[in-house]
């Protein structure tokens, strides 16, 4: 499988504190990779590095085999990297339609953006005039995903998709993520709580204190190992 996104021996820090210690990670076209680990392991920093939102102090970032280490966020976004950050990242005081309209910077028309969003998440069409901040957490996460998909990404980076959501809603959202991957998008998803992500992932990596401690297929062996790595539970 062609590695669309690749981190090679990546190191990153906040001031004098190193948080990533030589991370190796790759995501292929149409592949879902789950990046798991306890709080403070460096998972969100890994996503920010991949999106160009945090500088590296060593190592390489590659996109489609081409080195893009040091590229700015906007440059990587134009190249097809989309980060949906923790906390959903929608504008609560704008309507659903206004949130979607902001994605026309990608060159798509408002009608095209809405067509993509409403086809993927029909409930958003019903909420088009509603303020985003008054919707349920699951609907806000759908809107965040819809905004990201409007950029027609090649790489989708998801940070804590399940945060604050009921398991049933999380399951539905991850079904959509699996469908997105089937269309050829490389998906890297960060999750502290592993079950939903492992159910759809092709590959999983466990990050502990800034290092990949385990990588492989998301089988029962990995699920059992998670229990000893953090929180005392694989769910």
Give descriptors for this structure:
235 residues, alpha/beta, 4-stranded antiparallel β-sheet, 27% strand
The helicity comes to 25-40%
Query: What general outline do the C-alpha atoms trace?
Result: globular
What is the radius of gyration? 17 Å
Strand content: 25-35%
Number of helices: 9
Number of strands: 10
Task: Strand order, main sheet: write it out.
Answer: 6-7-8-3-9-10
Q: How many strands, what sense, and barrel or not for the largest sheet?
A: 6 strands, mixed
SSE sequence, one letter per element: EEEHEEHEHHHHEHEHEEH
Terminal residue distance = 29 Å
Oligomer: single chain
Which whole number gives the mean pLDDT? 90
Structural class: alpha/beta
Q: Uncertain regions: pLDDT < 50 for 5+ in a row? A: none
Please provide a written account of the structure.
With 235 residues, this protein is α/β, with parallel strands linked by helices. The chain contains 9 helices and 10 strands. The strands form 2 sheets. The protein has a 6-stranded mixed β-sheet, sandwiched between helices. Strand 9 (203-208) and strand 10 (211-216) form a beta hairpin. The longest helix is centred in the last third of the chain and has 16 residues, at 167-182. It is globular and about 45 Å long. The model has no long low-confidence stretch (mean pLDDT 90).
């Amino acid at each position: 499988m062609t590695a669309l996104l690749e981190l090679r021996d990546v190191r990153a820090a906040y001031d004098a504190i190193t948080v990533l210690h030589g991370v190796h990670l790759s995501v292929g076209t149409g592949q879902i990779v789950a990046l798991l680990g306890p709080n403070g392991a460096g998972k969100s920093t890994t996503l920010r590095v991949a999106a160009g939102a945090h500088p590296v102090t060593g190592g390489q970032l590659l996109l489609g085999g081409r080195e893009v280490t040091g590229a700015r966020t906007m440059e990587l976004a134009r190249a097809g990297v989309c980060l949906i950050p923790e906390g959903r990242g929608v504008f609560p005081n704008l309507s659903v339609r206004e949130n979607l309209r902001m994605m026309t910077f990608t060159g798509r028309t408002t009608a095209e953006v809405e067509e993509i969003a409403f086809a993927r998440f029909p409930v958003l069409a019903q909420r088009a005039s509603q303020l985003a901040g008054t919707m349920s957490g699951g609907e806000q996460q759908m809107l965040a995903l819809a905004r990201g998909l409007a950029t027609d990404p090649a790489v989708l980076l998801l940070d804590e998709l399940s945060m604050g959501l009921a398991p049933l809603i999380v399951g539905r959202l991850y079904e959509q993520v699996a469908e997105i991957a089937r269309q050829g998008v490389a998906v890297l998803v960060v999750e502290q709580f592993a079950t939903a992500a492992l159910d759809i992932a092709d590959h999983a990596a466990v990050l502990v204190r800034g290092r990949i401690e385990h990588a492989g297929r998301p089988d029962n062996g990995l699920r059992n190992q998670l229990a000893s790595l953090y929180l005392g539970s694989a769910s």
